[in-house]
Design goal:
The chain is α+β, with helices and mostly antiparallel strands and 273 residues long. The chain contains 6 helices and 13 strands.
Length: 273
């Protein structure tokens, strides 16, 4: 495997596992809105069509995401958590996120801002390497791919569009009615869709067993909660390790305005990723 293919495979796997951020590319959700009668409970495929259309028309949103990753090691399980607060404006192509990773009692927090095709990041750990808590990276040359990875909602669109669905359920979530769709994925088809979206070469695979549950607002047909689980085997320090991940995302839809904190003016400029 070439270095580019290896790195692309790692990125594809991260995209699948972290809900990270796949968006506009050569593959976009294709379903068209259904003609569900108001007041009637739609079928699963009709709701999917309405939800994909509603997601496509979102201009801004916020997300709270919590991930738990368990590595089943020979000497016991190692658990990590990732907590992300996230806000994105599709019109201005700007975002802000606050990401905290906790592992083995250690906590690392990174703030991220994207404005004017420039990525700004802040972390205490940057000071030792860059002389500043802030770093600035020009991503204009590959911004289309970067933005594809940043827009989490479009990643969920891609997953929903390529899923096999169970029957629709009606439940109560936070005191209000919600529709629930349980989704399973054909790994080969999902890999193909992700490769097309990210413009990766053939042979790049993310081999994981992936399932998802979507909670849908009946009035807006937008997702308000998404839970994904992934099971895979990775090679870590020469050992084959089973890894389980569960990622829960809560979504709200409101105007998002992104501006840089004053400290970003002192950012160290680094090369493009």
């Amino acid at each position: 495997m070439t270095t580019r293919t290896h790195l692309a495979g790692a990125l594809l796997l991260a995209t699948v596992l972290l809900a990270g951020c796949v968006g506009s590319g050569s593959t976009t959700p294709t379903a068209t809105p259904s003609e569900t009668v108001e007041g009637e409970v739609p079928g699963a495929n009709a709701l999917r069509a309405d939800t994909l259309s509603a997601m496509e028309n979102v201009s801004a949103y916020t997300a709270d995401q919590n991930a738990t990753i368990v590595q089943h090691l020979a000497d016991g399980d190692l658990t990590s958590t990732i907590d992300v607060e996230y806000a994105l404006n599709r019109t201005s192509r700007s975002l802000v996120s606050h990401r905290t990773v906790t592992r083995s009692g250690q906590r690392v927090t990174v703030e991220r801002y994207v404005l004017d095709q420039t990525l700004y990041q802040r972390s205490d750990r940057f000071r030792a390497e860059y002389g500043s808590e802030w770093i600035e990276r020009d991503v204009s040359e590959s911004f289309a791919r970067h933005w594809t990875l940043y827009d989490q909602l479009r990643l969920h669109q891609l997953f929903l569009d390529n899923a096999s669905l169970s029957d629709l359920e009606t439940v109560t979530l936070d005191g209000s009615e919600a529709y629930v769709l349980h989704a399973a994925f054909d790994t080969a088809e999902l890999n193909s869709a992700l490769r097309d979206t990210l413009d990766f070469p053939p042979g790049v695979e993310a081999n994981a067993t992936l399932r998802a549950t979507f909670w849908i607002d009946p009035e807006t047909t937008r997702p308000i909660k998404i839970r994904r689980t992934a099971e895979l085997t990775r090679t870590i320090e020469g050992q084959s390790v089973d890894v389980d991940r569960e990622i829960t995302t809560r979504l709200t839809y409101e105007n998002v305005s992104v501006s840089l904190p004053e400290g970003a003016a002192d950012a160290s400029i680094v090369g493009e990723e």
